[in-house]
Amino acid sequence: MAKNLVIVESPAKAKTIHKILGKDFDVTFSMGHLVDLPSSSLGVDVEHGFEPHYIVIRKRMKIAKQLKQEARGKTAIYLAPDPDREGEAISWHLANLLREDEAKQAKQAAKLAGRSSAKPAKGKKKAAPTQQNGRKIYRIAFHEITPQAVQAALTHPGEINLKKVNAQQARRILDRLVGYSLSPLLWRKIGRGLSAGRVQSVALRLVVDREKAIEAFVPQEYWTIEADLKKTGEPASFKARVEKIGGQKADVKTGAEAERLAGELKRQAFAVSGIEEKEQKRYPKPPFTTSTLQQEAFNTLGFSSARTMRIAQQLYEGLEVGGEGPVGLITYMRTDSVRVADEALNAVRALITDRFGKAALPGQPRSYKARKTAQEAHEAIRPADVARAPDSLKSSLTEEQWALYQLIWQRFVASQMADAVDRVVSVTIGAGTFQLKANGRTSLIAGWTAVYRDEEEKARDEDALPEGMLPPLAKGDRLELLGCIPSQHFTKPPRRYTDASLVKTLEEEGIGRPSTYSPIIQTIVSRDYVRRIGGSFVPTKLGRIVTEMLIEHFPEVMDLKFTAGMEEELDRVEDGDLSWADVVRGFYTPFSLRVAAAQEQMREVKREVIPTSYTCDKCGKPMVIKWGRFGEFLSCSAYPDCKNAKPVPTGVACPQPGCGGGLIERRAKGRHFYGCSNYPTCTYTTRRLPKQDE
Q1: Contact between residue 507 and residue 337 where contact means Cβ atoms under 8 Å apart
Q2: What CATH number has the domain spanning 168-216+495-601?
Q3: How do beta strands 610-615 and 622-628 pair?
Q4: Strand ranges for 409-454 from DSSP E
């Protein structure tokens, strides 16, 4: 039996590390948290320094027992959960659990030895006391699961970082205090099954506020005028847009004005009045952080944040690759750092030189500046071994695993390549009082774009000046007008949040941490506070009501700057500048007063009744709209004598010819859809209303 034990979080990670370490080490797993605050009670003593009461999670008791048994007889135990605050807290709980078991075993052994010495068996020697194990418990962390990284961690083991533990403990207690105070309040006032959270509710507010801005938006009409031109003697034409009229910026508000100006433009003589030519460099973007990976995976692959993190976890923990067994393919995927280890920089520069030549390599390795609030403990997300090109893994990975790995690989390689260089030509054209502009762009040096092009690179703003290949032009050249095209446009409202844009905003506002972005989004969707429609988040009526009531009674909790300030305080706890208990106390003292006031003052939505014109088909009494766990529903006004209840009609007719029914909202297996009221006679269903604004 091996004398060394390594404890990680998941079976997949354990399998990969066991392959690396061999027979001298046993490797097991905890399945994440074994110890947490109790689910049936607050678990925090607010009267005595906010002391937490931790217990072994019921569904993890079997694993806890198994870990204790596996730890017995070991000389050294290495705790290797993920290298972040949460992983540090898991390590701390594991260490306490194993030390308690060791002390218990030693006490039992001493007790048995004492009994044996008091009454030694006849004809037998007195039993020697059992010595304490004296085992060492170490904390090890690695940012990639490779032989080099794992061996380096074991060679230089450390201790549990109690400052990180305290920061995570403060976060857990804060979230517990908010959740266990606000969630029951929402159950009482709105309906059971709801939840509120220190971060999730702020994220919900962002979605609700954006929807309100969209609803309040009034589009403004404007027009552009483009001319289709060609140089005399040249076969190819090009387009130029009217930029100025009479020396003033073109500001055309109506179609009539556009047609009038187009008519005037047709009567003018066109000539090149100026040419500006320059080389434009485009710099590569840094390797991925958690936030940017989630954003780009959504924009490029259509992956939700939860899907992205699930796949990234698989790539990090290890997958079967050919005949090699489990291999960790990327570095740790919860990070806001853009730092890259020197070894990885050397490897990617060698690969770039080999594949693309020395011209594709900048003189020095690129370094990138992280966000001000970034924690530099981890590296950026990158391939664990950049020599494993995506094509070499295609047969070993699922389609989605391969797609995400390819994205990570391409972004990392591109981040260390030479600049892309374009030749940009801007041509000014005079036509009477009109001034037009045409832009041309050609690539001189592909640089990093030979490997990676994100959505920003691909996208073109429809209002941008037309770009493309321009014919050779010189100042004074006469041009022929082939056509004049007025185009109508309308200013657009703010875009609804998507997984990508919501994560980006949370990061920019300093709300949450890389490990929380995905759970936040999952929570507000699972609570039916928001729904995905066409890839965008749309708040439900329930989400709006919860948001409005929380803003009214808990303005600090729902304030973006306040929430961001709390994150900064947690960072200071980790730095050792603040006590975790002081942070919790500073928040809870005013918060508890607001909770007490809200208990009395907050409106009780679930008791509100809205009259309707509908009649109960069972007893003939009027139907009313009430509020339940899943939102509004029609209820008989004679309840509880008549318990008839129905979904609230949407007012949208079923599109099936000759049906005559109306669409109503239904729910099945946690999903919402619209179905015909004449079901089962009519089985029409749709995920969105035909007339719904998307």
Answers
A1: no
A2: 1.10.460.10
A3: antiparallel
A4: 420-431, 434-445
pLDDT of residue 670: 65
Alpha helix segments (H runs only) across 232-332: 255-266, 290-296, 305-317
Element (H, E) at 561: helix 560-575
CATH of the structural domain 290-415, one choice from 3.60.21.10, 1.10.290.10, 3.50.50.60, 3.40.50.2000: 1.10.290.10
23 by Cβ neighbours in 10 Å (0-12 / 13-18 / 19+) ranks as exposed
CB-based contact 521:306 (threshold 8 Å): yes
Taking a C-beta distance cutoff of 8 angstroms, is the pair 264, 257 a contact? no
Q: In the prediction, which pLDDT does 414 show? A: 97
Residue that has been written with the tokens 């944040």 in this structure: 305
Q: Which residue has the tokens 């702020």?
A: 202
User: What is the pTM assigned to this prediction?
Assistant: 0.85
B/e letters for 610-630, b = 16+ CB within 10 Å, e = fewer, are eeeeeebeeeeeebbebbeee
The CA dihedral of 496, 500, 502, 504, to the nearest 10 degrees, is -130
Instruction: State how far the Cα of 534 lies from the Cα of 518, in Å rounded to an integer.
Output: 19
Cα 62 to Cα 230: distance, rounded to the nearest angstrom: 79
Cis amide prior to 184 (ω within 30 degrees): no
Cβ atoms of residues 526 and 670 within 8 Å: yes
Task: List, in order, residues 6 or more apart from 216 with CB less than 8 Å away.
Answer: none
Copy the structure tokens of residue 691.
């007339």
What is the CATH code for 4-115+132-160? 3.40.50.140
pLDDT score of 449: 93
How does the average pLDDT of the chain come out, rounded?
90
Is the per-residue pLDDT at 488 higher than 90? yes
Closest to 226 (Cα-Cα) out of 243, 251, 205: 243
Q: Please name the amino acid found at residue 621.
A: K
Output 621 or 469, whichever has higher pLDDT. Answer: 621
- What are the pLDDT digits (tens) for 40-64? 899 999 999 999 999 999 999 999 9
Q: Bridge partners of 129? A: none
What CATH number belongs to 221-283+421-490?
2.70.20.10
pLDDT band at 462 (very low <50, low <70, confident <90, very high): very low
Q: Where do the domains of the chain lie?
A: 4-115+132-160, 168-216+495-601, 221-283+421-490, 290-415, 607-686
Catalytic residue among 78, 138, 316, 332: 332
Verify whether residue 54 is a known catalytic residue.
no
Give me the helices (H) in 133-198, please. 147-155, 162-189
Considering only CA atoms, give the Rg of the chain. Answer: 32
- The torsion angle over the Cα atoms of residues 57, 61, 67 and 72, rounded to 10 degrees, is 120
Mean pLDDT of 624-646: 89
Q: What are 178-205's pLDDT values in tens digits?
A: 999 999 999 999 988 899 999 999 999 9
- Closest CA relative to residue 610, chosen from 651, 644, 648: 648
Which residue matches tokens 């040249």?
234
Highest mean pLDDT among 321-325, 428-432, 687-691: 428-432
* Region of residue 49 (phi > 0: left; psi between -120 and 50: alpha; otherwise: beta): left
How far, in Å, CA of 79 to CA of 264, rounded? 78
What's residue 126's pLDDT? 38
Q: How far apart are the first and last CA of the chain?
A: 62
Write the CA distances from 329 to 308, 397, 490, integer angstroms.
15, 11, 47
Beta bridge partners of 685: 675
Mean pLDDT, to the nearest integer, of 150-156? 94
Tell me which of 158-167, 168-177, 603-612 is least confident: 603-612
